[in-house]
UniProtKB/TrEMBL annotation:
It holds the Pfam family adh_short. The keyword Oxidoreductase applies. It comes from Larkinella rosea. PANTHER family: PHOSPHATIDYLINOSITOL-GLYCAN BIOSYNTHESIS CLASS F PROTEIN, PHOSPHATIDYLINOSITOL-GLYCAN BIOSYNTHESIS CLASS F PROTEIN-RELATED. GO terms for molecular function: oxidoreductase activity. This is SDR family oxidoreductase. Keywords: Oxidoreductase.
Length: 286
């Protein structure tokens, strides 16, 4: 049997690293898409040491920059004839407002738009995979959606780091659900994941007050190993082979917020994302 190929973003740390390690142990070929190759190379070697197949590839990609995403997608399509699993894992939190070279707010650009563009560009490879799966890592932070205005996602009228992060996580669920509908006829599933309250490096970007709250909550945090369990389950379990369009936590479906279930929001977000990435120029349609 051919080994299954799994591509992960943000695979050099946190739950992305653990997910890659465990899937490599299960016999998956791993493709790591990472922004910091210096930090990623030791992790690549770590994964190779436990891999059943020894196939662990590493490519550079900055999800915030669309030209970088396009270049990475072209590299992947040049190296591989199929993909079986795509895990949109990378994400960031920033306290102060920042913008990409395209003039798009950085949190939204990284956490949603980069994943949207990458997934669409790799759809052709996923169609050639076996029971292909797309997994998008979201968060219960999606419930911080008060004042969610789709047209303001690229450039908020009043920036707040926590709200921007929450909005981006809401976008992850809306995207995963809309993608599930659009890929229904292609045998590709799409689900989103809440990993849990995981110990991450996000805390270094918090303000003093938020950092204090973060430290107070620290006893309730779970390890990256625990946080990666649902992503690993969705990537590898035969139980979810045909399951699509759901939001998972602790390896079970979970009901997301009302906003995350809105077909109107999902459709509007897709249209906005298509326009911001000029997706139709890349001849992606399904």
């Amino acid at each position: 049997m051919e080994s299954r190929i799994c591509l992960l973003t943000g695979a050099n740390s946190g739950i992305g690293r653990v997910t890659a390690l465990e899937l490599a142990r299960k016999g998956f070929d791993i493709v790591m898409l990472c922004r910091d190759l210096k930090k990623a190379r030791p992790v690549q070697q770590e994964i190779k040491r436990v891999s059943k197949t020894g196939q662990v590839d590493l490519l550079w990609c900055d999800l915030a920059v669309q030209t970088s995403v396009i270049q990475a997608a072209h590299e992947v399509t040049g190296r591989y004839d199929r993909l079986d699993v795509l895990i949109n894992n990378a994400g960031l939190y920033i306290e102060k407002e920042q913008y990409t070279p395209e003039g798009i707010e950085l949190t939204f650009a990284t956490n949603h738009l980069g994943a949207f563009l990458l997934t669409n560009l790799l759809t052709g490879l996923l169609q050639k995979g076996t029971h292909a799966r797309v997994i998008t890592v979201s968060s219960e932070a999606h419930r911080w959606d008060s004042g969610f205005i789709i047209d303001e996602l690229p450039k908020p009228a009043h920036y707040d780091g926590m709200k921007a992060y929450g909005a981006s996580k809401l976008c992850n669920i809306l995207f995963a659900r809309e993608l599930a509908d659009r890929l229904a006829g292609y045998g590709i599933t799409s689900n989103s994941v809440h990993p849990g309250l995981v110990k991450t490096s996000f805390a270094k970007n918090y303000s003093n007050l938020q950092g204090l709250l973060f430290n107070m909550m620290r006893p309730f945090f779970i390890s990256s190993e625990k946080g990666a369990e649902t992503s690993i389950y969705l990537a590898s379990s035969p139980e979810v082979d045909q399951v699509t369009g759901l939001y998972f936590a602790k390896c079970r479906p979970k009901v997301p917020s009302a906003a995350a279930q809105s077909k109107y929001y999902a459709s509007q977000l897709w249209t906005l994302s298509e326009n911001l990435t000029q997706l139709q120029q890349h001849q992606v349609a399904f």
